[in-house]
Predict the structure.
Amino acid sequence: MPILVMKFGGTSVANLDRIRRAAKRVGVEVAKGYDVIVIVSAMSGKTNELVGWVNETSPLFDAREYDAVVSSGENVTAGLMALTLQEMDVPARSWQGWQVPLKTNDSHAAARIEEIPTDNILAKFGEGMRVAVVAGFQGIGPDGRITTLGRGGSDTTAVAFAAAFEAERCDIYTDVDGVYTTDPRICSKARKLDKIAFEEMLELASLGAKVLQTRSVELAMRFGVRLRVLSSFEEQSDDAGTLVCAEEDIMESNVVAGVAYSRDEAKLTLISVADRPGIAAIIFSALSDAGVNVDMIVQNIAEEGRTDMTFSCPTSEVARAEQALAAIKDDGVLNFAEVIADEAVAKISVVGIGMRSQSGVAARMFKVLSDEGINIKVITTSEIKISVLIDRKYMELAVQALHDAFELDKAS
Ligand code: ADP
Ligand code: ASP
Ligand code: MG
C-alpha cells in the first residue's frame, strides 16, 4: 500500500480533543487506502516548560541530560495518539525514536539524522497495522543515549521518514493553513502562498520563519520529498495548504518572496582586539567549542593595531559565549578590553530567488527602514537574501513596512 507521512505540531495535539480531531484526519487517509506514519510533537507549551526546568536546574546544562528531559513530551502524545486511533478501530502502534531506531550523530540538542531502518515498521504494516505513530524530535546517538534534533525538530523527523519510506507525500499539519509571505501573526496583510520553492523556504526557515525547521526543508530538497504545509483545524481538500517544490514548478513569483524575522538575537562586541593574523580563528574556535552558533560577523577597520569585532548569536547562548570569551580574554595574543552584549536585537530578512537577477533590493530595503527611523546595526547578504540586525522594539514595524514596500500582499 502507498505510504503517507502526516505530522501534527504542538497546537494540533494540544489536548485530547485536538488529538481526536487529528486522529480523525488520519482515519480519512487510512480509509483512502494509505498506510500512514504519523509523527507527533509534544503538546503545545510542553517543550518550553521542559526546557525551562532544565535551565532553572542547570544554566550551562549537560546536553545529554537536556535531551533526556526535553524529548519526553513527544512520548506522551505518541502513546495517546496510538490509543485514540485504536479506540476508532484503526490498528495503530506507537514508537519512540530509539525503538525505530532513528539513529543520529552525537550532537546532543542539535543532532542530525544518520539512518532510519524501515524493516521494523514495514513488517508491522505487513501484519495489518495501518498507522505507525512515531514520537518526533528524538533519536538515539552512537553512545546509546537519547538525542533531540533541535527546536522544531519534528518537522525533520517527518521529512526523514517520508524519504526513508518513499512516502507519496509528507503533510505537515500546523496552526496556520500554509506558508505565508511573512508570519501572519505579526502582519495582517500576509498572503498565503500556493507554492514556494525549496531554496526560498530554506532561507525563510533558517532566518526564523518557524513554520518548518530548516533541516526538514534541506532533506525534502535533497530527497525530492513532496512536502505540504496545511492546517489541522480546517477540512482539507487534496490541494489545500502550500506545496514546497522545485523552482521549475512555479510559473511566476515576486522578486521578494517573503520576509522573515528572528526575535531572540543578541549582538556581542569585543572591544579593542589585537588586529593580527589568527585572531578571528582563536575567537570563533573558542565560541564553536562552547557550542555557540555564531551568525553574523563584522570586523571594524583597525586603528593603531587594534579593532572591534562584532558577532550575533541566539540570546539563549549569550551566557555560554561570555564564558568562552572570558576564558580567552587574557590570552597573550588577543588581549581585548571588554565584551559588550546587546540582548535586545532582532534580525529581519527579505528573501527571494528573483534577487539573483534583479538589483536594487538592498537599497530599497535600507530606504524603507530609514524612512521608519530604524537604525541598522549589522548587515549580511547572500545571493537570495538580505538580513539586518535592528533594535527588537522595531521588529514588527520593520516586517510590516517591508511587506508593504515590496507589495507582498499582491501576487505577481
Ligand atoms: P507547530 O507547532 O505546528 O510545529 P510552529 O509554531 O512551529 O507550529 O510553526 C507555525 C507557526 O509559524 C505559525 O503559527 C506562525 O506564527 C509561524 N510562522 C512564521 N513565519 C511564517 C510564515 N512565513 N508562514 C506561516 N507561518 C509562519
Ligand atoms: N516539541 C519540539 C519543540 O517544541 C519539537 C517540535 O515540536 O517540532 O521544539
Ligand atoms: Mg514547529
Remarks:
- The chain has a mean pLDDT of 95.
